[in-house]
UniProtKB/TrEMBL annotation, chains A, B:
Residues 39-58 bind DNA. Residues 16-76 form the HTH tetR-type domain. Keywords: DNA-binding, Transcription, Transcription regulation. The keyword Transcription regulation applies. One of its GO terms (molecular function) is transcription cis-regulatory region binding. Transmembrane segments: none annotated. SUPFAM superfamilies: Homeodomain-like. The keyword Metal-binding does not apply. It comes from Streptomyces caelestis. It holds the Pfam family TetR_C_46. This is TetR family transcriptional regulator. InterPro entries: DesT_TetR_C, Homeodomain-like_sf, HTH-type_TetR-like_transc_reg, HTH_TetR. Signal peptide: none annotated. Coiled coil: none annotated.
Length: 217, 217
């Protein structure tokens, strides 16, 4: 191998490799700038390829690229929730939140733009992708809690807490990432327990969970 | 006056009256059907006027009519928060929530379409209108609590609870308006106190509030 190896931009990539590279480039651009401020030229330039090449992979242009990048971000986010079903419950929740908050930290601008709504690239498809992540989060929480059939009050509590986590993440970005992520994570876990305890006053299923969590610590 | 009085649709209205009538008609249509499913013809027909007349008042067509209807709904929603600064705090919050939940009940489909995102009529302007209502809600809560300068932890707690109320309203609509509004309202008030109590563990300002609320009951 000579020291003058070709630069990565000119290396011959397979179709799948090229597609992944373009997606990754798009995702890192969309993560830190509003979709309005990104053109296909920016993506081409950052990937070191021509604009027609980007179009060849994404004939639907920026909207298609945005949706593909969003789906890839949604997959990444789902992986944050992967947590072995072992050990005490609240530390599992803490670890998943740590990964989630690291994701929010890494995709700050894109995360805000996506969730604050009213963006030019927002469609019923992007909304469906985001809703899918929320549903996955709720299912993960319920599966760790060992609940196969949540009643309406427990379901509302979990969904409400997930929305609250999302809102807290946006506010956290808005406040210049204060308080520190560790404090935010502990606060969110405690909010989860507190919300469940309120529901437990009028719901036997939630009451049993609160007791299980207390015994688990 | 003869018994054959003209029907309201043909009564000569002033410019302001006509505008109000069209807005009210639009709002009642947008309240119960998705914006995608409403045409200017529907608005004209429901108001008993011609389509060109609707265009004369709203030259920007459906988008302008939607935004005007949304602004009028936002005003109505702000009025839900009007509550005298008198008497114990939590009952004040309960009364405001009662009015808010009645609003949600009356504007069910429109409320969901607006807040679930991805609608064709959603723009940065509609997002700004909704954010204005959220900010107004937070300011009302803080003014009743007598807090002029909320610290970041208290601010986050209040904003998070307001988002949680919104989420709970959407879930409530989604679940066929179950549980009954009185139960939902009590649960939301208790969630407010519980969220504040969690924050109070690491925030002196919130701690003072929790004590004041407990003494106030």
């Amino acid at each position: 191998m000579t020291p003058q190896a070709p630069t990565p931009a000119y290396r011959r990539l397979s179709v799948e490799e090229r597609r992944s590279q373009l997606l990754e480039t798009a995702l890192s651009l969309f993560a830190h700038r509003a979709p309005e401020d990104i053109s296909l030229d920016d993506v081409a330039e950052a990937a070191g390829v021509s604009r027609p090449l980007v179009y060849r992979y994404f004939p639907g242009g920026k909207q298609q690229l945005y949706e593909a990048a969003l789906m890839s971000a949604a997959d990444e986010l789902r992986h944050c929730f992967d947590e072995p079903h072992e050990g005490p419950l609240l530390p599992r929740l803490s670890r998943a939140l740590d990964r989630y908050l690291a994701f929010v930290d890494q995709h700050d601008t894109g995360f805000s733009a996506l969730l604050q709504g009213g963006s030019v690239v927002e469609t019923s498809r992007t909304t469906a992708i985001v809703d899918g992540v929320r549903r996955a989060a709720a299912e993960h929480v319920l599966s760790h809690l060992g609940i196969a059939e949540p009643g309406p009050r427990l379901r509302m509590t979990i969904r409400m807490w997930i929305t609250a986590v999302e809102a807290a993440s946006l506010i956290w970005l808005d406040e210049g990432k204060q308080p520190p992520p560790d404090e935010l994570r502990d606060w969110l876990v405690e909010q989860f327990v507190a919300a469940l305890a309120v529901t437990a006053r009028r719901d036997a299923q939630s009451d049993a969970l609160v007791r299980a969590l207390a015994a688990d610590l």
